[in-house]
Amino acid sequence: MENPDNSHIKAFLIKFSYFGTDFEGFSLSNSKRSVEAVINRCLLENNISTVLKTSSRTDKFVSAISNCMYIESKFSPSKILGILNAEIPEMVFHSWAEVKKGFNPRHTGSKSYVYLIKINKGKREELKKILLKFQGTHDFRNFCKVDTRNTIRTIDRIEFTETEEYLMVTITGKSFIWQQIRFIIGYAIDQSGSEGDPFSNNVKRPVPALPHLLFLKDIFFEGITFNVNFPRHKKKLDFRKDLSYFSYYFFSELQNVTK
Predict the structure, then answer these.
(1) Which of 59, 156, 197, 218 is catalytic?
(2) How far is CA 108 from the centre of its chain?
(3) pLDDT tens digits, 32-80
(4) Is 242 a catalytic residue?
(5) The total number of structural domains that make up the chain
(6) Phi-psi region of 193 (alpha: psi -120 to 50; beta: other; left: phi over 0)
(7) Residues 210 and 226 in one domain
């Protein structure tokens, strides 16, 4: 039986998956059907936690294989994941790690995002060449939705995986700003074949790529190892007929992350 004594409350990081198109945005304040709102309601209704902090606020319609949240609870990790998976069928809560109380889940080592581009094989090398120009440290003010944050960011690496129809672009860095990945992809698609410098002063502000083909693949924390507790008995997230390859790739990557 779980011990209700507050002195036994522990802090956990929990990784979870979702299709962004199932929700009306991410932040708690956006909607009763936002990602955070759905999780928070479950935590409160089941007396799991009154604390909820998330690592990455994905844009509306952007999906995640491994977003991460911080909670404090008297319950065991297996019970917490069991309740969350039972109560929220449109999400998969699959990994956990115990951390010190007060841990900030936004202090990550790095994050990896994947964008799927349907493109002919003959045009892929041009697209890759443009995308690789974004590696390193740059001022991304022309490649984001500007707010109060510093627009100088570092992209550690950009990698590619290919199928007959798709080019999967994986972008990894310590932190990203609002819609940064989507602006980068939008620029690369529009400027395919161009030899120009994307960071020159005369570059026209690009149109961001659509959000529904982007997902947050994983979040890494230095010195923290996650325990996988994948709910194998749980029904899979609904396969998206309108995004059939995205669904297939999403589930493949989810299985890889939770091996």
Answers:
(1) 59
(2) 13
(3) 889 999 999 999 999 999 999 999 989 999 999 999 999 999 999 999 9
(4) no
(5) 2
(6) left
(7) no
